[in-house]
Design a protein that fits this description.
Keywords: Hydrolase, Protease. Belongs to the ClpS family. GO terms for molecular function: peptidase activity. This protein is of the alpha+beta class. The protein has 3 helices and 3 strands, in the order βααβαβ. It has a domain at about 30-100: Ribosomal protein L7/L12, C-terminal domain/Adaptor protein ClpS (Ribosomal Protein L30, Chain: A, 2-Layer Sandwich). Strands 2-1-3 form a 3-stranded antiparallel β-sheet. The protein starts with 20 loop residues before the first strand and ends with a strand. The model has no long low-confidence stretch (mean pLDDT about 95).
């Protein structure tokens, strides 16, 4: 008989990690009209009138407000487009992103 060692084949399962999420944050300023902020929130983030108004008021009272949470690419794109909409009208409207903890 031959001395042959048989080793069992092992299967390696790869786990794919979910992409890290980023928050889109609205920063309050004292110059951008409230109606314009609501319009941008409705257009870019597909919010209802009530949702957009609540986010705008929260940012007004607290200074900042988390608008939504997306993957990094989507969050940065939406924040840039919303900020650019304000700049196009001459307002200092600012949206930023940061990683969610």
């Amino acid at each position: 008989m031959a001395d042959t060692a048989v080793t069992p084949k092992t299967k390696v399962k790869t786990k794919t990690e979910r992409p890290r999420l980023h928050k889109v944050i609205l920063l309050n300023d004292d110059y951008t009209p409230r109606e314009f902020v609501v319009t941008v929130l409705k257009a870019e983030f597909r919010m209802t009138e009530d949702q957009a108004h609540k986010v705008m008021i929260t940012a007004h009272r607290r200074g900042v407000c988390v608008v939504a949470v997306f993957t990094r690419d989507v969050a940065e794109t939406k924040a840039t487009r919303a900020t650019d909409a304000g700049r196009a009208k001459g307002y200092p409207l600012l949206f930023t992103t940061e990683p969610e903890e």
